Amino acid sequence: MRTQVAIIGAGPAGLLLGQLLSRQGIDNVIIERKSGDYVLSRIRAGVLEQGMVQMLEEAGVAERLHREGLVHDGFSLAFDGRRHRIDLKGLTGGKTVTVYGQTEVTHDLMVAREGIGATTIYEADDVVLHDFDGASPRVSFVKDGVRTELACDFIAGCDGFHGVSRRSVPEGAIQEFERVYPFGWLGVLADVPPAAHELVYASAERGFALCSMRSATRSRYYVQVSLDEEVEDWSDERFFDELRRRLPEDVAAAVTVGPSIEKSIAPLRSFVAEPMRFGRLFLAGDAAHIVPPTGAKGLNLAASDIHYLSQSLIEHYRDRSDTGIATYSQRALARIWKAERFSWWMTGLLHKFPANTPFEQRMQRAEFDHIANSTVGSAGVAENYVGLPY
């Protein structure tokens, strides 16, 4: 087999890259170790920056998003029952975010890829990346018991934190930066109306909580839990009782209790791998970085990586210029670290850390007071939340 760009991973990052390249006539093959149904079953983020929405428009897959997505002009921060709205639209010159689940983004990209007849190989086992430090990289894999080799010009590693792409980089060629947080998020998805028409991030004595949604009839709720908690110990009744204890009274009163359709605990970490290019191998999305979900940046950072990477590859084939390829890692990392900072800051502001002293607790309250009483403070939050420019 032969292609121009081999893409490892059929999540939203890999699918978006494939769609953008295909629309420019650049041949690509996606190799995914799981089934298509499994990829679609992943419950992930749902707040899209305006820049990502524009990328999906560019990829020709935004019709359903504009029809079903919920455009939000703001969101709320709450601290010990006090609630402050961040006016995204008013503080950023008209920018907004759109609530549209990652599963829906992935579905739309899959349908578009099938529509143009581009090749995706699902359930590929034992994927191995070869010779990406030279001029003729290859990817080999086993499908239905047969090992196949795919020759290519470039390899895009979009296969997530646990994927083969980053692990294929020689030891010593990559530097990793990481912070693991001493808690996780217990999340529940339920077919009940949201408690508020915009997201509410709440910090209370009992810990952090988030009221989010996937649609006007489907809610996504989270509470901070210790890392030794087990999902099985949290009945729906216990979860909703704990959620309401952490919310401002008016929001708690509006929570509609209903049976969960998905429940899971996700640990929180901040992680960056540098650099993101190794010869003809590029890392993108969770393969290169992880952010705590507090700032709604994970999926959006993957999209910004794909913005830089797709531009670089298009310039290579269309303009015979490798300037973008040479600067891909530098440009992507400059934006990644800013998003990492915002997500780290939001996490530090709103969560209860076991080791926090009374002084640090007072600092959290003072930080919230500053945001609530300062237009400049609120504007800084808004600017980062809607997404920094590419």
TrEMBL record:
Keywords: FAD, Flavoprotein, Oxidoreductase. Residues 2-343 form the FAD-binding domain. Pfam families: FAD_binding_3. SUPFAM superfamilies: FAD-linked reductases, C-terminal domain, FAD/NAD(P)-binding domain. GO terms for molecular function: 4-hydroxybenzoate 3-monooxygenase activity. Transmembrane segments: none annotated. It comes from the Bacteria. The keyword Flavoprotein applies. Its EC number is 1.14.13.2. The keyword Heme does not apply. NCBIfam families: pbenz_hydroxyl (TIGR02360), PRK08243.1 (NF006091). This is p-hydroxybenzoate 3-monooxygenase. It comes from Kaistia dalseonensis.
